[in-house]
């Protein structure tokens, strides 16, 4: 069958259950083709095409029949479109002919090959003949509908005639076409002789005009429910068609909270041919916090990928996380081959999305083949989640690697409450729109009930992208102060959107900067081995000041610019030579990620140049370690350093800054934090010395300010910083995020 349907009041209307049932039927049934036929302009239809909850049409007929495009490519359908174009005199010509009729008000909506106006019946009555004559003189038709809308169209153009021409062009069987509408604007589809349904709550004028028409059914249910009635009434699908079966009954068992994260809360290793768990080699302060939500007996699942390798034996879909501490938490492993992981995560996510998210769009490499792998992996995550979750469960999805999960998950399990937290920076529309699949990504995220970012600027950037892709209404907002800086840094903002409406869906938004795990740092500092390391570092540095830099090898971190700024400081302030040491810990990327090799060579050359210029027998200006240090050693370095120098060119947050503050706050010392104002943490950490990493002079000046800072000022700044870090720790972050999710309603 072919469903040719109007949109507003018809295919986009009806109760949620009916919409979900019809959309599922149309989307998945191999024997159904879909045609959108609407008065909207194509530009106004495009947002619907990126909404993953709405089936993608095979063809789109817009502008009351004046525009016909392929639903997948959006290219004009020829020769039908050219035939319509040939009889259209042009927008400016028609608008000029209508200008003398000052009572007509031009609609401010997208429109092509038509001119649309508002006009009430009383105003139109004395002008109707003159308007008709002016239109006929141009070879155009006039269509008046709903006692409000007046359209000037190409001749012989309306929804019914264009649909009939489309059916002839595509050789569609007319007896298998079902048209659906709800206003007098749709009347031409019924008079063209197709089987039709006037959905419930249709405009009375349409109901009256179609009462005597054969093959027209007047449904009781509005919108999608009425279309489903008509499919049954006309027997367009067999009564035993498997696709007509209602969705499965509600699932009572399963996890109440499902966590989707980029890795398991443990490392997996093979020992003697057996897959075993080991503590993570790279401890992450977020993971203990996320695990803590499963300590109270709440049933849960942690969904992450597992390597599916025949050499490892049969794939284990489920594993216990920690039977003693979290007896009700299960690890649900999504089977991926090593090649899929390499493409999905190490290559595509890092070479396409990572540079774009951090505003290095010129470095982004978008490949359609990789995107298809990304979609496949995200669908597997969604399917695994749908199988794990109890009815009405909360699903918490983490970061951009899983952007497309909400779309599939909402389709599979509309009962779930879906929350998403974006750990990386989120750019504004002028950057994000370079992504070829931007509409699909935004459409998927809008299937969530709640979306969280680190800071208000990232929330507003997301809203900026949404508003550039589809009509969106800002429902509520709040002041960013006093929680966040407003005008005091590059990522500051005064107000933040907290809820938007897109179509009939509302999505709540929030800013939740991730906190650090103070208990973990406190425990590390209490260890005798760490105390000994701190003592040795301080003795080694002596009277010199230690400037510390800890970061991953990445072009977003501004490492090279930092080295050049340090070199400039030593040049311009010779009195600092021999009195300050820069210790750089730069964690290298995985061997497979070749994109960073050139950068590492440049950094090593800069270190060699600086040390070659300024070194003395008893002093090396830059000490560079291209390796990952154990967390205990990192904390010891935090404690020994007088200055922490963090200068990313763009960063979602930067937890290293908070770990440094936490260390000195616990120690009662007064280290100085020099922080890029383009790091998300800059909007939160009042008391840091903010610096612009894109300004070489300001980079040097910020470091010099920290090195010259009186102890009283440094102490005051650290107290202010530690107050923020101590209160907004990682546990509070998790609680506040889930509390915000609980306050939202299902889409």
Question: How does this structure look, described?
Answer:
- The protein is 39% helix and 22% strand.
- It is an alpha/beta fold.
- The strands form five sheets. A ten-stranded mixed beta sheet has the order 16-17-15-12-18-19-20-23-22-21, with helices on both faces. The chain has a seven-stranded mixed beta sheet with strand order 4-3-2-1-9-10-11, sandwiched between helices. Strands 26-25-24-27-28-29 form a six-stranded parallel beta sheet, sandwiched between helices.
- Helix 14 (368-388) crosses helix 15, helix 20 packs across helix 23 (631-640) and helix 21 (559-572) runs parallel beside helix 22.
- The radius of gyration is 31 Å and the shape is elongated.
- The two termini are 30 Å apart.
- The model has no long low-confidence stretch (mean pLDDT 92).
Question: Helical stretch count?
Answer: 27
| N-end to C-end Cα span | 30 Å
- For the residues shown, what is the average pLDDT? 92
The SS-based structural class is: alpha/beta
Give the low-confidence spans.
none
> What's the number of extended β-strand segments?
29
Radius of gyration: 31 Å
Please summarize the sheet with the most strands: 10 strands, mixed
- Helix proportion range: 25-40%
β-sheet strand percentage: 15-25%
Strand order of the largest sheet: 16-17-15-12-18-19-20-23-22-21
């Amino acid at each position: 069958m072919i469903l040719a349907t109007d949109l507003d009041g018809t295919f986009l209307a009806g109760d949620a259950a009916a919409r979900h049932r019809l959309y599922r039927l149309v989307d998945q049934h191999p024997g159904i083709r879909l045609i959108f036929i609407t008065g909207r302009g194509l530009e106004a239809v495009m947002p619907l095409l990126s909404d993953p909850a709405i089936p993608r049409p095979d063809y789109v007929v817009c502008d009351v029949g004046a525009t016909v495009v392929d639903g997948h490519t959006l290219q004009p359908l020829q020769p039908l479109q050219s035939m319509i174009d040939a009889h259209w005199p042009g927008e400016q010509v028609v608008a000029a002919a209508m200008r003398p009729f000052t009572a007509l008000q031009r609609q401010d909506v997208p429109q092509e090959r038509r001119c649309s106006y508002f006009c009430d019946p009383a105003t139109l009555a004395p002008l109707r003949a003159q308007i008709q004559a002016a239109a006929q003189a141009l070879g155009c038709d006039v269509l008046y509908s709903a006692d409000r809308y007046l359209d000037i169209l190409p001749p012989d153009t309306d929804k019914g005639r264009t649909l009939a021409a489309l059916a002839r062009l595509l050789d569609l069987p007319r007896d298998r076409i079902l048209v659906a509408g709800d206003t007098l604007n749709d009347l031409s589809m019924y008079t063209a002789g197709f089987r039709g349904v006037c959905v419930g709550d249709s405009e009375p004028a349409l109901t009256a005009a179609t009462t005597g028409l054969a093959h027209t059914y007047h449904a009781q249910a509005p919108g999608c429910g009425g279309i489903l009635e008509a499919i049954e009434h006309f027997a367009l699908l067999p009564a035993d068609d498997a696709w007509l079966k209602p969705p499965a009954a509600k699932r009572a068992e399963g996890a109440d909270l499902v966590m989707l994260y980029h890795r398991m809360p443990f490392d997996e290793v093979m020992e003697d041919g057996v897959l075993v768990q080991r503590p993570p080699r790279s401890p992450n302060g977020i993971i203990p916090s996320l695990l803590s939500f499963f300590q109270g007996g709440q049933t849960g699942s942690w969904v992450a990928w597992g390597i599916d390798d025949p050499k490892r034996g049969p794939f284990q879909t489920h594993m216990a996380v920690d039977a003693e501490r979290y007896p009700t938490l299960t690890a649900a492993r999504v089977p991926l081959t090593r090649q899929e992981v390499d493409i999905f995560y190490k290559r595509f996510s890092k070479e396409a999305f990572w540079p774009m998210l951090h505003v290095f769009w010129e470095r982004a490499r978008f490949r359609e083949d990789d995107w298809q792998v990304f979609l496949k992996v995200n669908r597997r995550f969604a399917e695994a989640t749908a199988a794990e979750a109890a009815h009405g469960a909360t699903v918490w999805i983490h970061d951009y690697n899983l952007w497309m999960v909400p779309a599939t998950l909402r389709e599979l399990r509309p009962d779930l409450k879906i929350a998403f937290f974006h750990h990386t920076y989120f750019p504004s529309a002028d950057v994000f729109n370079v992504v070829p699949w931007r509409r699909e990504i935004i459409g998927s995220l809008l299937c969530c009930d709640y979306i969280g970012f680190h800071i208000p600027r990232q929330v507003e950037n997301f809203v900026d992208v949404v508003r550039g892709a589809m009509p969106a209404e800002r429902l509520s907002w709040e002041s960013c102060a006093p929680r966040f800086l407003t005008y005091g840094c590059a990522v500051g903002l005064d107000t933040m959107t907290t809820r938007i409406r897109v179509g009939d869906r509302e999505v709540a938004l929030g800013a939740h900067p991730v906190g650090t795990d103070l208990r973990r740092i406190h425990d590390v500092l209490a260890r005798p081995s760490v105390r000994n390391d701190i003592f040795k570092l301080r003795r080694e540095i002596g009277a010199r000041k230690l400037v510390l830099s800890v970061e991953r090898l990445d072009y977003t971190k501004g490492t090279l610019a930092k080295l050049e700024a340090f070199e400039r400081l030593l040049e311009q302030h010779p009195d600092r030579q021999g009195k300050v040491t820069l210790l750089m810990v730069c964690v290298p990327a995985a061997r497979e990620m070749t994109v960073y090799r050139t950068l590492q060579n440049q950094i090593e050359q800069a270190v060699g140049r600086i040390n070659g210029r300024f070194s003395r027998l008893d002093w090396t200006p830059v000490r560079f370690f291209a390796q990952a240090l154990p967390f205990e050693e990192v904390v010891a370095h935090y404690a020994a350093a007088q200055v922490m120098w963090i200068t990313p060119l763009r960063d979602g947050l930067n937890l290293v800054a908070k770990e440094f503050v936490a260390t000195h706050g616990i120690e009662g010392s007064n280290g100085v934090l020099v922080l890029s104002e383009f790091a998300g943490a800059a909007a939160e950490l009042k008391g840091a010395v903010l610096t612009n990493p894109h300004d070489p002079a300001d980079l040097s000046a910020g470091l010099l300010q920290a090195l010259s800072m009186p102890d009283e000022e440094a102490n005051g700044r650290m107290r202010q910083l530690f107050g923020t870090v101590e209160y907004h720790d990682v546990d509070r972050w998790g609680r506040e995020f889930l509390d915000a999710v609980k306050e939202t309603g299902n889409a």
